Structures are given as C-alpha cells and as structure tokens.
Amino acid sequence: MSEHFFITGGTGLVGTALLPRILASWPDCTVTVLIRADDEQTKEVRLRDIVARLRQEGIPHASERVSVLWGDVGVEDLGLRSEQREDIIRTATHLIHGAATTRFDHPLEEARAINCGGTMRMIRLAQESVDRGRLKRMVYIGSSSVSGQRGGDIYEHELEMGQPFFNTYEHSKNESERLVRDYFDRVPATVFRPSIIIGDSRTGWTSSFNVIYIPLRLLHKGLLKYVPGTPSTKMDLVPIDWVSASMVHIMKNDESVGKVFHQTAGPKRAATLGEVVLSAIEYFDRNAPLSSPRAMEFIDRVEYERRRAVMRGREEALMSQLDTLLPYVSVDRLFDSRNSDALMEGSGIVFPLFRDYAERIFAFCLKTNWGKVGIAA
Asked: Residue 81 is part of a domain; what is its CATH number?
C-alpha cells in the first residue's frame, strides 16, 4: 500500500502550504484532511476549495488523492465514527497534527481542552497504528512560543525551564509538546517549532493576517504611532514556503524521529523590529500615501504599559490589538536550530531574508485588502 496521510489543521496556514508539498514529495500518496464543518454542504465546499488550490499549485489528480472527514480535535475520538477512526488506524502511514486554538485569551482550561486534548487524541491514534505495524511517522506542529517569557539562547532539547508564560496559548502548547515527547519511546514522532510565520517569500501569499500583520495593518491606516521595543529588537520571522519545504525535507529523514526542530530564523537571519517597521512605512508611504508621512516612535515596555493604562475608548481598543505582538518584542529570544541545520544541510532549501521579500508581503496585504478581497495565490 502507498503512503496515506491523515492531517488535522490542514486548512490553516501551515496545513494549506504543507498539503501540496506532501502530494508532490510522495507522488503516489493520498491524504485525508480532518475539517470542522457545520453540515455536509460546508464540508463539500471546503473540499472543493482545497482541490482548487492544489490545482493552482500544479498537483495532478488532486480530487482523486485528497478526501476530507468531518470532525473536531476538541472532542472524543476527534468526532469520528468508530469505523472512520478504524480506517485511519488501518491505512495511515503518517499522522500530522496541526490543529490548535491560537487564541491568546482562552482561559487555561479551555486552551488545554483543545490543544492538549487534541494532541492526546492524536497520540492514541498513533499508538494504535504503531501496534498494527502501519505508522511510519507522527508529526506534531508546535511553536517556538513554548519558551514563554524566557530570553537569551533557547535550545531545541529544552522545554520546561521554570519559565512563566505570556498567555494560555504558550502554556497549553508547552504542555502539548510534553505529551508528544513523553511518547517518543513508543511513537515515531517528530516535533516542529516554527516561530512567527509570515507570507510566502515568493508571492507574499498568506491566509492568516494575525500577529505581525496586526501592527502592519494599523501602520497602513496611519493609526500606529509607536511600538513597544527597540529598533534592534530581533523579530524571528519565517516565511511559510520555507517552513513547509523544510518540514517535508526533515520529516522524510529517518534521523528526525524522536527529535525537536526549531524552524526559526535564529540570531543571524532574524529581521529587526526597526527593519520591519521602517520598510513597511517606506512601502506604504510610496504605495498608499496618507495626507502626511507616517512616523514611528520606539518605546520600552514600561512606557508602553503606562500609556496603555490611561487610554480610553477607541484609542484603547486600537492599541489592545498590539497585545498579540507584545510577547515577541519584549523579550529577545535567540533560537538555536542545530537539529534543523544538520538535516537541512545540502538540501538546497535556502532561508530567505526578510529584506529580500518584504515588499511582496506588503503588496499582498494591499492587493487583498488584508484578506478581505480574496487570498488565492
């Protein structure tokens, strides 16, 4: 039997980019994507959307190779019927778990129920498949944010280091990764930790306008006058095309079993906050000018919180959108990626520097009106 992939989170940013690379890298494989849908009609629409994008990516016979199942990682047995679950255990060679809540404001127990609960359900699925002698690999898509409020050098083998967390997303993803690592001796698993994922370095495409895109949108509208951080603050940005390409390359290597891989820019390749903001100002002033040129003030976190404390009404609502960015600019994290670097050596997959594709990111934002017009590649 040829390879069969079962993917959760397949319609998210990472999953959408990963799917065509999997189908191209395993030309005879088939894929089942778990999706949340309110009814059969919605499920069919989602499937048509997936197939249409795969055809744009030049994947032959996409409609014959991809199927969807209606389910939810947040409920028992992933919301699958017993025969559907049994079919996955019997046929899947690869399980890829990317579904998660990325909201920062969930109460911790709600974040755990989705992120930790969904991860544990996939682990049970993987273990049963291993017992049948079928599973070749489980891939868990985690986050570099498991480092929480730690600063300085962050290593791939580290996890619980006594760190506090900025939010319940970080906390629950840390605990979810622990669940996977606890099964390294029983399940052939690989953990990926991408950092701040942004659009495709070749086209600017993204399906998610969160995190770094929030201050960029405010900057475009002329509503952002200051940011917490210094111009030299490291911004560990990774373009989605590089993330998906490196994931596939690493997961195909047997040496990646039982290891954690940072998918990060690291100190030598990371952009700076000043580089991101000032290049955006220059681009927007040139392509979407306002009545007066945009300007930016860099302030420390104490000053930022002082200003926030006295805000009211519309101003407070606008600046509250920066809360998702604060964890990434208030602590300098330097992600060591020696595991990833070792397996990527000789792959021919080159990490794109932000300055070389920044204008494509900004152009896509304007072209799609920040995702409101349509986000086809």
From this structure: 3.40.50.720
